[in-house]
Amino acid sequence: MVQKSKKPPVTKIDDPVAPKRRGRPRAYEPEVALGKALDLFRKDGFAATSLDDLSAATGMNRPSLYGAFGDKRELFIKSYRRYRDDARNAMGDIFRNELPVRKRLERIYAVALDIYLSGESGPRGCFTVMTAASEAVHDPDIRAMVLEGFVELDRAFAACFRVAKEKGELPESADPVVLAQLASATIHTIAIRARAQTPRKELEAIVKGALDVMLGAAK
Questions:
Q1: Which residue, 28, 84, 133, 207, shows the most beta carbons closer than 10 Å to its own?
Q2: pLDDT confidence bin for 217, thresholds 50/70/90
């Protein structure tokens, strides 16, 4: 018995053909991803943070990271800029506010401590002092950013002391530049001690003692 061959099914040319689905890249928000990278760099530093760590933290694969931020060094620099911008925004109004000099400085240091003591896994200190300064040793671009940050802070403090001097809160013999350097040195000290998990009350006592010296020595 001869078996009849089956005819192939007829396909109508006007039948709608379902379009092939293509995988969509994972959506992400650059500023959110940059904030995650910043947190990781602040916690672990540059050398100890791998691209796999950054990928896991941001939810982005390596090609996406490269496409959005460049290589690891570029991402570190962008994270540091973000940190600087955030700190400037947090403190800028206080630096410009013409409160009595002691009140103004107390508020500046209080905000600094809020920043330095933050972190889900423990205090992270200052990105400039604790993280960027280490990379500044061998990277001229990062070194320039760190030095620029130091100068910016010195100038902001000097402006505070200059206004206080003009208002008669400080004597004519007071040197705003020298006082600004002492004020910046206090900022760096509490940043380092905060990273070492010194309790906030002890850090506040250091600030109070420093202000007593700075403002007392200026009288």
A1: 207
A2: low
Determine the Cα–Cα distance for residues 65 and 45; give it in Å rounded to an integer.
18
Tokens of 211: 């202000």
Distance CA 132, CA 202 (A): 25
Tell me, yes or no, if the pTM score tops 0.70.
Answer: yes
Mapped onto helix, strand or coil, the DSSP state of residue 139 is: coil
Checking if the pLDDT of 19 tops 60, the result is: no
pLDDT of residue 21: 46
Residue type, 178: V
Cβ contacts of 129 within 8 Å, gap of 6 or more: 188, 191, 192
196 Rama class: left (phi>0) / alpha (psi -120 to 50) / beta: alpha
Examine the pLDDT at 110 and tell me if it is beyond 70. Answer: yes
192 contact partners, CB below 8 Å, separation of at least 6: 125, 129, 130
The dihedral through the CA atoms of 200, 207, 183, 170 has a sign that is positive
Q: Spell 156-179 as b/e; 16+ CB within 10 A means b.
A: bbbebbbbbbeeebbeeebebeeb
* Assigned token pair, 219: 């009288």
